[in-house]
Amino acid sequence: MTADKIQILIAMVIYMAIVVFIGVWYAKRANKSSENYFLGGRSLGPWVTAMSAEASDMSGWLLMGLPGVAYWCGLADAMWTAIGLAIGTYLNWLIVSKRLRRYSVRANNSITLPEFFSNRFREKHPVIMTLAALFILIFFTVYAASCFVTCGKLFSTLFGAPYIVMMIVGAVFVLIYTILGGFLAESASDFMQGVVMIVALAVIVIISTVQAGGIGAVVDNAQSIPGFFEFFGLGNPATNDAGEQIVVAGVPQWGAAKDYGFLSVASMLAWGLGYFGMPQVLLRFMAIRHENELKRSRRIAMIWVVISLGVAVFIGIVGRSLFPVAHLTSSASESIFITLATSSLPAILAGFVMAGILAATISSSDSYLLIAASAFAKNIFHGVCKKNASDKQIMLVSRITLLVIAAIAMLLALDENSVIFNIVSFAWAGFGATFGPLMLFSLFWKRTNRAGAIAGMVSGAAMVFIWKLLINPLGGAFAIYELLPAFIISSIFIVVVSLLTAPPSKEIEEDFEAVKNNNV
Predict the structure, then answer these.
(1) Rounded to whole angstroms, how far apart are CA atoms 325 and 483?
(2) Residue 498 lies inside a defined structural domain of this protein
(3) What confidence category does residue 23 fall into, taking pLDDT thresholds of 50, 70 and 90?
(4) pTM, entire model
(5) How many domains does the chain have?
(6) Disulfide engineering: 194 pairs with which of 55, 212, 279, 281, CB 3.0-4.6 Å?
(7) pLDDT value at position 419?
(8) Cα(285)–Cα(294) distance, rounded to whole angstroms?
């Protein structure tokens, strides 16, 4: 290992040691009860709520997946996705956060998302709880796999070690950390990691832009590529049979720009719909100590999101200017952030910037693992299988579940050619369509009933798989992001089934009115 790589490793080890310290620091408090472990005792302040929500949401996708898309095919896909996410973030904080915080307390002090939905409809037989927990297990296992892919790509790119070995090392570290501290440790470290992520992005984009000759030179280079720097066009890398971009005399080859019409724009903007069903964000709304602090959290979150997303997209554009032939496949282009950092900074500083990717990965994977484990332990084991289970038994089962989920996620992450953006987009669609419409209707439509809730969840989740695997491959107008049609189908099922079946009970309607009028 070279001296530079040793310095990078030292910097990352220092960072990882700080993260572990946070887990140990909060371990005693977290283990007092399952409520503390899973929701932090509803004690988060506005800064931690905002930063941990966004850091856990964005993951390594922000520093690798999104810049990789911009590097590979240009501005349109990446920027419209970023715009959709920014709009979705704002609307989620604006219309969902306060009412969910209030309603989760009214609904028998619910501390997990499946528990909230179940209590919201006063279930006697926990069908909603069980289904919600199972969907969380499925989609968060896929999400965790995307984080492990990020770890593997990061360490194998930096140190030249085998991808699978590095992926497993990263996964084990995340697993140990999550088991130690629970929700409080996760949220506190996510605050720190949110800061690290935005600093890393800012440092790299500024230095790289200067090295490329300034913003003008970067833009000129991007505009010289057909469709690359357009909102309604898409760069089209000319590739060989292996999917690698063709290079002639050191110059990457491009085909004619692809059209980018209304359906493509709507498809990317639809990413914003996912926020209404994203457990790692919704739980932060439930965990804040006072609902009147959510307004400040919203402002903090929006500033972070807009800056981070905009910079991440531009990093891909800058990377194409500085290193036009460094990454010749869609999967490899997701390492452009690493290439820029290691080439433009002293090794020790590059190590701390690389910690930004590690920060993004840890901040998300610990959330995914913890929420998935709580879904099984709290909602299936305790809610269905053993209702008299003690807190100690619930937490033991949650940790066993963590091990199982992590093992499955590692199996899914074995392919080093996996594209992080694609893995995340599928899981994001799954959550958005399964829980997003149900969350909105549960909070804002009194007529929503239990049958409609079940129909909405099942139809939304099913349509994600059906559209992705069967309809999307047909191409043309059907080649849109599966979240959009699945979200619409779920909404239709909730409304139609609710209207065709018996209205909610008087007690459920009284709960709704109490929350609406802030009489909780």
Answers:
(1) 33
(2) no
(3) low
(4) 0.87
(5) 1
(6) 55
(7) 72
(8) 8
DSSP string, 368-424: HHHHHHHIIIIIIIIIII-TT--HHHHHHHHHHHHHHHHHHHHHHT--TT--HHHHH
112 lies in a domain? no
What are the C-alpha distances in Å from 163 to residues 127, 172, 268?
41, 14, 30
Residues 6+ positions from 8 with CB-CB distance below 8 Å: 158, 342, 347, 348, 350, 351, 354
State how far the Cα of 428 lies from the Cα of 355, in Å rounded to an integer: 24
Helix (H) or strand (E) holding 441: helix 420-444
**Residue 114 located in a structural domain:** no
Q: Is 145 helix (H, G, I), strand (E, B) or coil?
A: helix
**Predicted pLDDT at 498:** 98
- pLDDT recorded at residue 24: 67
pLDDT in tens, 107-165: 999 988 999 999 999 999 889 999 998 999 899 888 888 888 888 888 888 888 888 98
Give the residue numbers spanning the domain of 334.
3-88+141-417
Determine the Cα angle at 173 with ends 12 and 365, to 5°. 100
Q: 144, 416, 411, 140: which is closest to 279 by C-alpha?
A: 140
Cβ-based burial of 73 (10 A; exposed 0-12, middle 13-18, buried ≥19): buried
d(Cα 293, Cα 298) in Å, to the nearest integer?
9
Distance CA 375, CA 370 (A): 9
- Burial profile 157-177: b = 16 or more Cβ within 10 angstroms, e = fewer: bbeeeebeebbbebbebbbeb
The total of other beta-carbon atoms located within 10 Å of residue 415's CB is: 13
Written as one letter, the residue type at 218 is: V
Please give the single-letter amino acid code of residue 356.
G
| Cα torsion angle, 441, 442, 446, 448, sign | positive
Cβ atoms of 30 and 184 closer than 8 Å: yes
Per-residue confidence (pLDDT) for residue 184, from 0 to 100: 57
- Across 183-201, b (16+ Cβ under 10 Å) vs e yields bbbbbbbbbbbbebbbebb
Whole-angstrom distance, CA of residue 337 vs CA of residue 68:
8
Partnered with residue 258 across adjacent β-strands are 234
For residue 283, what is the domain's CATH number?
A: 1.20.1730.10
